[in-house]
Each structure stands twice: as structure tokens, then as C-alpha cells.
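User
New here, help please:
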Amino acid sequence: MIQTDNAQQILRRRLLLVGTITAILVGLITWYTETERIDEKVLAQAVSAAHRISPANLEAHEQGSLSDAALGTMLEYVAADHFGIVELYDRHKNRLIEYVPPALEALEEELKQGGHVELALKPSYMKRLVQGQFALVVAVPIARPGEAPRGYLEGVYLPSPESMAQIRDDITRAVVLVVLAIVLTTLTVYPVVLALHREVLQRSRSILKGNLELLEVLGSAIAQRDSDTNVHNYRVTLYAVALGEAAGIPAQEMRNLIAGAFLHDVGKIGISDTILLKPGRLTPEEFQTMKTHVTLGQEILHQSAWLLQAREVVAHHHEKFDGSGYMAGLAGEAIPLNARIFAVVDVFDALTSRRPYKEAMSVAAAMEIMGRDRGSHFDPRLLDLFVPLSAEVFQRYGEAGEADLHQALLPVLEQYFMGQEK
């Protein structure tokens, strides 16, 4: 589940990916937002130019103290600041003067297309393209603060290429600064997140290690009551892993199988020594009592959420494929797969191991006996998978001592509990 190096690499890639995507998205949003503000910036330039005609000028013209020619000269001065057609209106919205700069007379018809902008109490505009160049048709009220307009100026404002280039440079600079800020933030946070992640992994490994030790301690406690050794638990776990891998079960199910193999007889803690250690055959009444170790085992597992992953094996490893087992009397694939796997390896170990009441059988003899129960006790497919494995796994583990079996089990636990999921 946890492997520090791989986890760090995955986190590193994810942080860089998130930082990159965030920088791109925020950069695009900034670019879009700033681009949408181009017309606002151009409008501000146009309004600034239009204000070269003051309310006092219009008042003087209305009173006759400022001639049309003088007012026209002022309008030319406004037009010189990147205006095309410029029209001046009085306070009643009657046109006073129109001026087209000589250099733009050839564009007069094109400049006039698109209609007029409403003359209002606030500057208004609409966007235009004039020979592919960005332009604004603007209408600016000419008034003193808090007073009614003394007139209006309407014109087509054509910002200079230099002005547009400056605006675009400002937008580019804003986008670059935002992207750099995100990149620098990501690079600054990156080592902090990695350090925190490393600490979480270490704590997780420590907790998991403690849970695995609990698994071993419980398994050992059972073994001490039953056979004075852990070798049975270790062997059946290794046998179960070999068959589980041959059956192609996923990593999570393999972890459940390993936990179940360790704890398959955990309920025997509640069985009296008189029955548990009886050298001869059990009476029917004693056997009924022995069966209760399955129920007792489930009750013990329910006291720990982590140990519940062993439930399938603990509850059903005495079921038989034909439905004649206990406790639930399940049959066929109604029996959980892990329980069917464990039933094969548990009987194999029982037959090939020496017990106080019997000698160990050879692998061939054990497989011959188990073959007779193919389809009745055992899942035929799983037994067929185990037949070619039986001699190899017995050679590796069947007669190994407790220390060697424990050593062989460590990399299995590392792979399925501490390593990556496969």
C-alpha cells in the first residue's frame, strides 16, 4: 500500500502537474480579463482627449463670445489626438460642428458606418474595426462636476499603434507576473508538502507495522494453544499467497487472504483445552463445540475494523464446495474466493505436516487424497491450480523452521502491505 520512494515520486509529479495547470489556467484567465479591459483603457484615453473642450468653451460659443471657427480649431486639436470623425453637439443634442482630419478623408464613409452612440450623462462607447484596426465610437458629455452637460462630443477614436502596443505589453506583463507568482508559490510550498507527506508516510508505516505485529501476535497466541509453534500459520500463509497469485486475485484481496491465513483459527482461543488438545477423535458433542470457534473468531474480529479484513477466511474456511461444510453451509462460488483458496492450503498443510496423532504424508499422497475431494470439498479450479505448485511450495516451506518461514514471510508482507498495489 505504501512505498515511500514511489509515493514521493507520485506526489512530486502531482504537485508539478497541479502547479503547471494552475499557472496555465490563471494565466489564461488573466489574459482574458485584461484583454476585455482594453476597450476600457482606450475609452479612458478618448475621454481624456475629449475633455480638451471645456464646458466654458461651449458656454462662450452659446453666448457668442467664441466663434464657430475658434470652436472648430479646438475640435481639430481634439481630432489630432487620434480621433477620426469628430462631432460636437450642444446641450440640446443639436450638432454644432463636424470635423474629419484630412489624412482620414478617404476613410470618411467607413468611419461613419455603424451608427451613433447615445449621448448620455456618462461616457458611452461601442467597439469598431476600421480597416482591421481596433477603434471606439465614443460619446463624452462635456460638463462640470455635478452639473448638467453643456454639450457632447462624439467621435471615432483610433488609438495609436504605440498605445496599443503598450497596453498589450501591460497585459503580457500582468500574465507573466501571475504565472511567476504561482510557479514560485508552488516551488516554495513543494518541499514543505513533501516533508509533511514523508512524515505522514512514516506514521502510516508505523501504524501499519503495529497492525501487522498485532496480526502475528494473535496468530502466535492461537498457535501456542494449539501446537506450540507458529510454523503452521506461517506455512499456510505462504501456501495461500502462492495459490492466490496463481488465481490472479488483486492486491487488496491478497491482503485479506494473508490476514485470514494468520487468524483463521483465532476463535480457538475460546475453546477449552480439554477439547482443543484432546489426542483422540472428538465426540459428536465435542465436535459441535469445536465448530463454535468459527463464530467466536468472527466475534473477536468485530472488535477491530482493521482485523475485519480476515473475516471471509475466518468465517468460511470450513465450508465445502458441495455445501456440506460449516457454519453457513455455503456451496460453490457462494463461498468467498479467499475461503476457498485457504481451504485447499489448510488441508494440504494438515496432511503434509507431522502431528501428535499422525505422521506427515508425502506431497503425492496428500494430493491423491485431496484429488478425491475435488468438487466436493475443494473448488476444482483452485485445486487444479494448486497441483503444479504443491511440490515446489512444500520444498521451499514444508520442512523449514520457524525462523526461516518468518524470514520468507517478511518480503511478502512488504510487497502486499508496504508496497504498491498491483
